[in-house]
Amino acid sequence: MQRCRNGTLALFEGINYETFCRQVHPDFSPIGWHLGHIAYIEAMWLLNRCAGISFEPPVSKGGKSNLTQYQRLFAADGLPKHERVYLPTLSEVRCYLDTVRKQVFDYLEIAPIDSQERLWRWLIQHESQHSEIISFVLQLQQGAIAPQWSGINRQQSEKQHSTDNSQLTEMVEIPAGEFEMGNDSIDALDNELPVHRVYLDTYQIDRYPVTCGQYRAFMEAGGYRDRHLWSDAGWKWLEDNPVNQPLYWVDAAEWDNYPVCGVSCHEAEAYARFAGKRLPTEAEWEKAASWDAATTSRRTYAWGETTPDAHRCNHDNAVGHTTPVDAYPGGQSGYGVCDTLGNVWEWTASWFDGYEGFVSYPYAGYSKAYFDGQHRVLKGGSWATRPWALRCAFRNWYYPEVRQILAGFRCAL
After folding, report:
1. 3-class SS at 324?
2. Nearest Cα to Cα of residue 234 among 412, 413, 400
3. Four-residue CA torsion sign, 149, 397, 387, 182
């Protein structure tokens, strides 16, 4: 819990009050709201509901109670996003976090962990997910490309990868057969359960995510103007949002082996048609990333059971931006598929829904509210994904038109 918190707080170093409160996009709350929400949820579940403590947040400078104010401000169903800009200061929210955490750790000394461990782990993942949102909202505030991205030099780029460009277009054949999909560990979120067997016919999947160099070919061929490459929904979105490049785009050859990042699912599908391919289904992606055909067993991570580290994938804000798709050969899956975890989230062709036998946890609306046929599944994680939310079975979901998240894709046949 403390390691997770340290990483969250590190994102706020040097942040001024204007940045803390600014809503940079209508769909996303200010970063300061996310920090307060983390404390609010921890207090609600562990102190109020588990410990039975009527938690009182620190009083304001005027000596007044902040209880009602914080309940309305930091609850997900409280204020609309555009009204979440009137926030306490960073130091006041830090005091709120610290006060909650002290009482939480006091409770931890006597808590019945055997019966509560799943909830405690869910809360770590909850903070991890909001921490990642803070990361990409900060990037949006800094502009399409964060300053440190543009400072990457050619020498660093060449040092990080040595794969021949032709190899970056390789596809891996995944033989027909069953595999186990999902996750039944103590960390499993409700939408990852239950584990179930899925049969897939033989298919091919890109060894690497689509690179900026590959995507540039689509752009230069007029991909954003070719109606035949776009679905009806995708073309309507493009007409309403006339863009001609990914949101996070640097037009420089040094970036050719980096994954394209900041594309909507509509853009990913258009590129796939341009390449004569398609997006993989969630099941195809997960089998390619997690299934060990030699032992007929699923892996938690593409490389096995060793927890993520800096030698296997780009994650946890360790680098602060994307890396070449071939920079982590030690992170490849049993089938030899590379860069599946970290770097960029990957769009799939699947709509987010519950598996057969789905049971909500820890409350009915956590996942089920989004089983509406309007959210696409993304897999894999990004360079900002915390290690507690990084695994092959993890399921992210967004509307297909969203491009502010750190998302790319790979293709299948």
Report:
1. coil
2. 400
3. negative
